[in-house]
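User: Structure please.
Assistant: Input sequence and predicted structure:
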Amino acid sequence: MKKKFSQFGSRFLGESGTKLLMDDLAQVAGSNAFINLGGGNPARVPKMESVFGNAMHEILAGRQFEDIVGGYDSPQGNESFLEIVCEFFSRNFSWDLTTENVAITTGSQSSFFMLFNLFGGMCVDGLERVIQLPLTPEYIGYGDLLINPDCLVSDRAKIREIGSNFFKYEVDFDLFHIRSNAGAVCFSRPTNPTGNVLSDEEVNQLVTLTGEAETPLIIDNAYGSPFPNIVSDEIKMPKASHVIHCFSLSKLGLAGLRTGIVVAQPETITAIKSINAATCLSINGIGAALIAKLMVSNEIIGLCNEVIRPFYAEKSRLAIEIFHKYLSGIDYRIHVSEGAFFLWLWFPGLAISDQVLYKRIKERGVLIIPGSFFFHEDNCSWEHSKECIRVSFAQSDEALETGIKIVSEEVKRCIKSIRT
Protein backbone atom coordinates (compact mmCIF):
# COMPACT_ATOMS: atom_id res chain seq x y z
CA MET A 1 0.00 0.00 0.00
CA LYS A 2 2.88 2.39 0.81
CA LYS A 3 3.86 2.56 -2.89
CA LYS A 4 0.42 3.97 -3.68
CA PHE A 5 0.66 6.80 -1.16
CA SER A 6 1.38 10.30 -2.40
CA GLN A 7 4.82 11.81 -1.83
CA PHE A 8 3.26 14.15 0.71
CA GLY A 9 1.50 11.32 2.53
CA SER A 10 4.59 9.13 2.54
CA ARG A 11 6.54 11.77 4.46
CA PHE A 12 4.46 11.04 7.54
CA LEU A 13 5.53 7.39 7.60
CA GLY A 14 9.17 8.27 8.23
CA GLU A 15 10.92 9.67 11.28
CA SER A 16 10.27 13.23 12.36
CA GLY A 17 10.79 15.26 15.47
CA THR A 18 7.08 15.90 15.93
CA LYS A 19 6.24 12.21 15.58
CA LEU A 20 8.95 11.28 18.08
CA LEU A 21 7.67 13.82 20.58
CA MET A 22 4.04 12.73 20.31
CA ASP A 23 4.90 9.01 20.30
CA ASP A 24 6.81 9.56 23.53
CA LEU A 25 3.83 11.39 25.02
CA ALA A 26 1.57 8.49 24.09
CA GLN A 27 4.04 6.03 25.60
CA VAL A 28 4.03 7.74 28.99
CA ALA A 29 0.27 8.41 29.12
CA GLY A 30 -1.12 6.55 32.10
CA SER A 31 2.27 4.92 32.77
CA ASN A 32 4.73 5.31 35.61
CA ALA A 33 7.58 3.77 33.63
CA PHE A 34 9.00 7.09 32.41
CA ILE A 35 9.82 10.52 33.76
CA ASN A 36 8.65 12.82 30.99
CA LEU A 37 11.05 15.72 30.57
CA GLY A 38 10.51 15.71 26.83
CA GLY A 39 7.01 16.60 25.73
CA GLY A 40 5.43 20.00 25.30
CA ASN A 41 2.44 19.28 27.51
CA PRO A 42 1.77 22.10 29.97
CA ALA A 43 2.01 21.47 33.69
CA ARG A 44 -1.02 20.80 35.86
CA VAL A 45 -1.58 24.20 37.51
CA PRO A 46 -4.25 23.68 40.20
CA LYS A 47 -5.56 27.25 40.15
CA MET A 48 -6.08 27.19 36.38
CA GLU A 49 -7.72 23.78 36.51
CA SER A 50 -10.12 25.16 39.12
CA VAL A 51 -10.91 28.23 37.00
CA PHE A 52 -11.64 26.20 33.88
CA GLY A 53 -13.53 23.57 35.89
CA ASN A 54 -15.84 26.26 37.25
CA ALA A 55 -16.32 27.66 33.74
CA MET A 56 -17.28 24.22 32.49
CA HIS A 57 -19.82 23.82 35.31
CA GLU A 58 -21.41 27.11 34.24
CA ILE A 59 -21.62 25.86 30.66
CA LEU A 60 -23.18 22.58 31.75
CA ALA A 61 -25.68 24.32 34.04
CA GLY A 62 -27.32 26.15 31.15
CA ARG A 63 -28.06 25.32 27.54
CA GLN A 64 -24.66 26.47 26.27
CA PHE A 65 -23.14 22.98 26.29
CA GLU A 66 -25.87 21.55 24.07
CA ASP A 67 -25.56 24.50 21.72
CA ILE A 68 -21.77 24.09 21.46
CA VAL A 69 -21.66 20.34 20.82
CA GLY A 70 -24.99 19.88 19.06
CA GLY A 71 -24.45 21.92 15.92
CA TYR A 72 -21.91 23.28 13.47
CA ASP A 73 -20.44 26.69 14.08
CA SER A 74 -18.87 28.97 11.48
CA PRO A 75 -15.58 27.67 10.00
CA GLN A 76 -14.13 31.04 11.04
CA GLY A 77 -15.15 30.42 14.66
CA ASN A 78 -18.06 31.39 16.87
CA GLU A 79 -19.17 34.89 15.91
CA SER A 80 -19.64 36.13 19.48
CA PHE A 81 -16.18 34.85 20.43
CA LEU A 82 -14.63 36.59 17.41
CA GLU A 83 -16.14 39.83 18.70
CA ILE A 84 -14.75 39.14 22.20
CA VAL A 85 -11.26 38.60 20.74
CA CYS A 86 -11.46 41.88 18.81
CA GLU A 87 -12.59 43.81 21.89
CA PHE A 88 -9.89 42.18 24.04
CA PHE A 89 -7.00 43.18 21.77
CA SER A 90 -8.46 46.61 21.05
CA ARG A 91 -8.89 47.27 24.76
CA ASN A 92 -5.47 46.01 25.88
CA PHE A 93 -3.24 46.76 22.88
CA SER A 94 -5.13 49.49 20.97
CA TRP A 95 -5.43 47.22 17.95
CA ASP A 96 -8.11 48.35 15.53
CA LEU A 97 -9.72 44.99 14.71
CA THR A 98 -12.99 43.73 13.32
CA THR A 99 -14.17 40.15 13.11
CA GLU A 100 -12.75 40.10 9.57
CA ASN A 101 -9.28 40.15 11.20
CA VAL A 102 -9.74 37.05 13.39
CA ALA A 103 -10.09 33.31 12.78
CA ILE A 104 -10.23 30.38 15.20
CA THR A 105 -8.41 27.16 14.32
CA THR A 106 -8.05 23.66 15.70
CA GLY A 107 -4.83 24.60 17.49
CA SER A 108 -1.53 26.26 16.61
CA GLN A 109 -0.26 23.34 14.55
CA SER A 110 -3.31 23.70 12.32
CA SER A 111 -2.81 27.47 12.13
CA PHE A 112 0.73 27.08 10.87
CA PHE A 113 -0.12 24.30 8.44
CA MET A 114 -2.57 26.66 6.77
CA LEU A 115 -0.36 29.76 6.90
CA PHE A 116 2.81 28.03 5.72
CA ASN A 117 1.05 26.48 2.74
CA LEU A 118 -0.78 29.71 1.91
CA PHE A 119 2.50 31.64 1.63
CA GLY A 120 5.01 28.87 0.85
CA GLY A 121 5.26 26.47 -2.09
CA MET A 122 4.35 26.93 -5.74
CA CYS A 123 2.31 30.13 -6.00
CA VAL A 124 -0.25 31.24 -8.56
CA ASP A 125 2.26 33.61 -10.15
CA GLY A 126 4.51 30.65 -10.97
CA LEU A 127 7.15 31.39 -8.32
CA GLU A 128 8.01 28.80 -5.69
CA ARG A 129 8.22 30.66 -2.39
CA VAL A 130 9.77 29.65 0.92
CA ILE A 131 8.97 30.16 4.58
CA GLN A 132 12.06 31.70 6.16
CA LEU A 133 13.02 31.30 9.81
CA PRO A 134 15.36 34.16 10.86
CA LEU A 135 17.13 31.96 13.40
CA THR A 136 17.39 28.33 14.40
CA PRO A 137 16.98 26.32 16.57
CA GLU A 138 13.23 26.85 16.19
CA TYR A 139 9.99 24.99 16.86
CA ILE A 140 10.18 21.29 15.95
CA GLY A 141 6.70 21.23 14.40
CA TYR A 142 7.47 23.71 11.63
CA GLY A 143 9.51 21.09 9.77
CA ASP A 144 6.54 18.81 9.05
CA LEU A 145 4.02 21.35 7.79
CA LEU A 146 4.88 22.37 4.23
CA ILE A 147 3.59 20.24 1.38
CA ASN A 148 7.01 20.78 -0.21
CA PRO A 149 9.49 20.36 2.68
CA ASP A 150 12.22 22.10 0.67
CA CYS A 151 10.25 25.33 1.05
CA LEU A 152 11.25 25.76 4.71
CA VAL A 153 14.58 27.56 5.02
CA SER A 154 16.38 28.82 8.08
CA ASP A 155 19.30 30.92 9.20
CA ARG A 156 21.72 30.10 11.99
CA ALA A 157 21.41 32.03 15.18
CA LYS A 158 24.29 34.05 16.55
CA ILE A 159 25.54 32.66 19.88
CA ARG A 160 26.36 35.08 22.69
CA GLU A 161 27.98 33.42 25.69
CA ILE A 162 27.02 34.79 29.10
CA GLY A 163 29.37 33.92 31.93
CA SER A 164 30.71 30.38 32.17
CA ASN A 165 27.47 28.40 32.04
CA PHE A 166 24.91 30.42 30.08
CA PHE A 167 24.41 31.61 26.52
CA LYS A 168 21.76 33.22 24.31
CA TYR A 169 20.76 32.95 20.66
CA GLU A 170 20.24 36.17 18.69
CA VAL A 171 19.28 37.01 15.12
CA ASP A 172 22.48 37.54 13.16
CA PHE A 173 21.50 40.72 11.35
CA ASP A 174 24.97 40.94 9.79
CA LEU A 175 24.06 37.87 7.74
CA PHE A 176 20.27 37.82 7.76
CA HIS A 177 18.47 39.12 4.70
CA ILE A 178 14.98 38.40 3.43
CA ARG A 179 15.33 36.05 0.51
CA SER A 180 13.94 37.15 -2.82
CA ASN A 181 11.59 34.14 -2.87
CA ALA A 182 10.45 34.44 0.75
CA GLY A 183 6.70 34.01 1.00
CA ALA A 184 6.74 34.75 4.73
CA VAL A 185 9.13 35.08 7.66
CA CYS A 186 8.23 33.30 10.91
CA PHE A 187 9.52 33.03 14.49
CA SER A 188 8.19 31.96 17.88
CA ARG A 189 8.37 34.23 20.92
CA PRO A 190 9.26 32.81 23.42
CA THR A 191 11.03 30.28 21.27
CA ASN A 192 10.27 26.62 21.64
CA PRO A 193 12.73 24.89 22.30
CA THR A 194 15.16 27.32 23.89
CA GLY A 195 13.08 29.68 26.01
CA ASN A 196 14.64 32.52 24.01
CA VAL A 197 12.66 35.75 23.75
CA LEU A 198 13.63 37.97 20.84
CA SER A 199 14.13 41.48 22.14
CA ASP A 200 11.77 44.29 21.18
CA GLU A 201 14.67 45.72 19.14
CA GLU A 202 15.12 42.47 17.20
CA VAL A 203 11.38 42.21 16.58
CA ASN A 204 11.11 45.82 15.44
CA GLN A 205 13.97 45.29 13.01
CA LEU A 206 12.27 42.19 11.59
CA VAL A 207 9.00 44.13 11.29
CA THR A 208 10.79 46.89 9.40
CA LEU A 209 12.70 44.55 7.07
CA THR A 210 9.64 42.45 6.20
CA GLY A 211 7.56 45.58 5.71
CA GLU A 212 10.09 46.99 3.27
CA ALA A 213 10.14 43.66 1.43
CA GLU A 214 6.31 43.44 1.48
CA THR A 215 6.65 40.00 3.06
CA PRO A 216 4.27 38.72 5.76
CA LEU A 217 5.80 38.30 9.23
CA ILE A 218 4.21 35.47 11.25
CA ILE A 219 4.73 35.63 15.02
CA ASP A 220 4.01 32.49 17.04
CA ASN A 221 2.83 33.59 20.51
CA ALA A 222 1.94 30.11 21.82
CA TYR A 223 3.91 30.76 25.03
CA GLY A 224 3.91 34.53 24.87
CA SER A 225 1.91 37.68 25.46
CA PRO A 226 -0.87 38.18 26.40
CA PHE A 227 -1.70 34.57 27.27
CA PRO A 228 -0.18 32.45 28.74
CA ASN A 229 2.52 35.14 29.04
CA ILE A 230 5.24 32.74 30.18
CA VAL A 231 7.96 35.36 29.80
CA SER A 232 10.46 36.66 32.31
CA ASP A 233 10.16 40.32 31.26
CA GLU A 234 7.45 42.46 29.72
CA ILE A 235 7.50 42.50 25.93
CA LYS A 236 5.75 44.67 23.38
CA MET A 237 3.34 43.29 20.79
CA PRO A 238 4.10 44.73 17.34
CA LYS A 239 1.20 45.69 15.13
CA ALA A 240 1.56 46.30 11.43
CA SER A 241 -0.60 45.42 8.45
CA HIS A 242 1.79 42.68 7.27
CA VAL A 243 2.23 41.08 10.74
CA ILE A 244 0.23 37.91 11.45
CA HIS A 245 -0.16 36.98 15.12
CA CYS A 246 -0.92 33.42 16.20
CA PHE A 247 -2.13 32.54 19.70
CA SER A 248 -3.04 29.33 21.49
CA LEU A 249 -5.10 28.26 24.48
CA SER A 250 -3.00 25.11 24.99
CA LYS A 251 -0.41 26.49 27.39
CA LEU A 252 -3.12 27.95 29.61
CA GLY A 253 -3.91 24.33 30.46
CA LEU A 254 -6.36 23.59 27.61
CA ALA A 255 -4.00 21.58 25.41
CA GLY A 256 -6.53 18.84 24.71
CA LEU A 257 -9.12 21.24 23.31
CA ARG A 258 -6.92 22.30 20.37
CA THR A 259 -7.88 25.95 20.01
CA GLY A 260 -5.82 28.52 18.14
CA ILE A 261 -6.41 32.17 17.25
CA VAL A 262 -5.05 33.94 14.17
CA VAL A 263 -5.07 37.74 13.82
CA ALA A 264 -4.32 38.93 10.29
CA GLN A 265 -5.58 40.92 7.34
CA PRO A 266 -9.05 39.96 6.01
CA GLU A 267 -7.67 38.27 2.89
CA THR A 268 -5.68 35.82 5.03
CA ILE A 269 -8.58 35.24 7.41
CA THR A 270 -10.91 34.49 4.50
CA ALA A 271 -8.44 31.89 3.23
CA ILE A 272 -8.20 30.25 6.68
CA LYS A 273 -11.98 30.19 6.94
CA SER A 274 -12.21 28.45 3.56
CA ILE A 275 -9.57 25.86 4.49
CA ASN A 276 -11.33 25.19 7.80
CA ALA A 277 -14.58 24.67 5.93
CA ALA A 278 -12.97 22.19 3.54
CA THR A 279 -10.91 20.24 6.07
CA CYS A 280 -12.96 20.23 9.29
CA LEU A 281 -16.30 21.94 8.44
CA SER A 282 -16.53 23.65 11.82
CA ILE A 283 -14.39 24.68 14.80
CA ASN A 284 -14.67 23.08 18.24
CA GLY A 285 -16.18 25.81 20.42
CA ILE A 286 -15.50 24.46 23.91
CA GLY A 287 -12.11 26.14 24.32
CA ALA A 288 -13.52 29.48 23.24
CA ALA A 289 -16.47 29.10 25.60
CA LEU A 290 -14.20 28.35 28.58
CA ILE A 291 -12.09 31.45 28.10
CA ALA A 292 -14.69 33.93 26.78
CA LYS A 293 -15.78 35.46 30.12
CA LEU A 294 -12.16 35.61 31.31
CA MET A 295 -11.31 37.72 28.25
CA VAL A 296 -14.33 39.97 28.64
CA SER A 297 -13.44 40.71 32.28
CA ASN A 298 -9.66 40.81 31.58
CA GLU A 299 -9.30 38.24 34.37
CA ILE A 300 -7.21 36.14 32.02
CA ILE A 301 -4.41 38.74 32.16
CA GLY A 302 -4.29 38.62 35.96
CA LEU A 303 -4.28 34.80 35.96
CA CYS A 304 -1.41 34.73 33.50
CA ASN A 305 0.67 37.32 35.34
CA GLU A 306 -0.08 36.21 38.89
CA VAL A 307 -0.52 32.43 38.55
CA ILE A 308 0.94 30.96 35.36
CA ARG A 309 4.07 33.09 34.94
CA PRO A 310 5.27 32.77 38.59
CA PHE A 311 4.53 29.02 38.53
CA TYR A 312 6.83 28.39 35.57
CA ALA A 313 9.43 30.91 36.76
CA GLU A 314 9.87 28.90 39.96
CA LYS A 315 10.06 25.64 37.98
CA SER A 316 12.75 27.16 35.78
CA ARG A 317 14.76 28.37 38.76
CA LEU A 318 14.59 24.94 40.39
CA ALA A 319 15.54 23.04 37.21
CA ILE A 320 18.57 25.27 36.62
CA GLU A 321 19.65 24.83 40.23
CA ILE A 322 19.43 21.03 39.92
CA PHE A 323 21.39 20.98 36.66
CA HIS A 324 24.13 23.12 38.21
CA LYS A 325 24.36 20.62 41.06
CA TYR A 326 24.60 17.49 38.93
CA LEU A 327 26.61 18.86 35.97
CA SER A 328 29.31 20.36 38.16
CA GLY A 329 32.79 19.58 36.83
CA ILE A 330 32.02 19.40 33.11
CA ASP A 331 31.68 21.91 30.30
CA TYR A 332 28.02 22.81 29.75
CA ARG A 333 25.87 25.78 28.79
CA ILE A 334 22.21 26.54 29.55
CA HIS A 335 20.31 28.96 27.34
CA VAL A 336 19.09 31.85 29.48
CA SER A 337 15.56 30.98 30.53
CA GLU A 338 13.45 33.89 29.29
CA GLY A 339 10.15 32.13 28.67
CA ALA A 340 8.17 28.97 27.84
CA PHE A 341 8.75 25.90 30.02
CA PHE A 342 11.90 24.32 28.64
CA LEU A 343 15.60 24.40 29.35
CA TRP A 344 17.93 24.15 26.38
CA LEU A 345 21.31 22.64 27.17
CA TRP A 346 24.47 22.71 25.08
CA PHE A 347 27.35 20.33 25.77
CA PRO A 348 30.41 21.46 23.78
CA GLY A 349 32.56 18.49 22.90
CA LEU A 350 29.83 15.89 23.38
CA ALA A 351 31.43 12.58 22.32
CA ILE A 352 28.17 11.12 20.98
CA SER A 353 25.30 12.62 19.00
CA ASP A 354 22.23 14.06 20.65
CA GLN A 355 20.22 11.19 19.14
CA VAL A 356 22.37 8.56 20.82
CA LEU A 357 22.25 10.50 24.08
CA TYR A 358 18.46 10.59 23.84
CA LYS A 359 18.31 6.80 23.45
CA ARG A 360 20.64 6.20 26.40
CA ILE A 361 18.61 8.49 28.63
CA LYS A 362 15.36 6.87 27.48
CA GLU A 363 16.75 3.43 28.35
CA ARG A 364 17.04 4.72 31.91
CA GLY A 365 13.40 5.77 32.01
CA VAL A 366 13.68 9.50 31.24
CA LEU A 367 12.41 11.27 28.12
CA ILE A 368 14.07 14.36 26.65
CA ILE A 369 14.09 15.72 23.06
CA PRO A 370 17.31 15.56 21.00
CA GLY A 371 18.25 19.04 19.83
CA SER A 372 19.06 18.36 16.18
CA PHE A 373 15.34 18.12 15.27
CA PHE A 374 15.01 21.85 16.00
CA PHE A 375 17.65 23.01 13.51
CA HIS A 376 15.76 22.01 10.35
CA GLU A 377 17.41 20.96 7.12
CA ASP A 378 19.53 24.04 6.41
CA ASN A 379 21.53 23.72 9.61
CA CYS A 380 21.74 19.98 10.24
CA SER A 381 25.43 20.01 9.30
CA TRP A 382 26.19 22.50 12.09
CA GLU A 383 28.07 20.50 14.76
CA HIS A 384 26.41 22.60 17.43
CA SER A 385 23.05 21.08 16.47
CA LYS A 386 24.19 17.64 17.67
CA GLU A 387 25.39 18.91 21.04
CA CYS A 388 22.06 20.18 22.40
CA ILE A 389 18.98 18.76 24.11
CA ARG A 390 15.63 20.15 25.24
CA VAL A 391 14.30 19.40 28.72
CA SER A 392 10.81 20.33 29.93
CA PHE A 393 10.48 21.49 33.54
CA ALA A 394 6.65 21.21 33.51
CA GLN A 395 6.82 18.31 35.97
CA SER A 396 6.74 17.77 39.72
CA ASP A 397 9.76 18.84 41.76
CA GLU A 398 10.50 15.20 42.55
CA ALA A 399 10.40 14.19 38.88
CA LEU A 400 12.73 17.07 37.99
CA GLU A 401 15.28 16.05 40.61
CA THR A 402 15.27 12.38 39.60
CA GLY A 403 15.14 12.98 35.86
CA ILE A 404 17.82 15.69 35.75
CA LYS A 405 20.14 13.53 37.85
CA ILE A 406 19.85 10.70 35.29
CA VAL A 407 20.30 13.08 32.35
CA SER A 408 23.40 14.55 33.96
CA GLU A 409 24.90 11.13 34.68
CA GLU A 410 24.52 10.08 31.06
CA VAL A 411 26.03 13.35 29.81
CA LYS A 412 29.01 12.95 32.14
CA ARG A 413 29.62 9.48 30.74
CA CYS A 414 30.27 10.82 27.26
CA ILE A 415 31.52 14.38 27.58
CA LYS A 416 34.95 14.88 26.02
CA SER A 417 36.35 17.69 28.12
CA ILE A 418 36.28 17.75 31.91
CA ARG A 419 36.89 21.10 33.56
CA THR A 420 39.78 21.46 35.95
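DSSP finds twelve helices and 16 strands in the chain.
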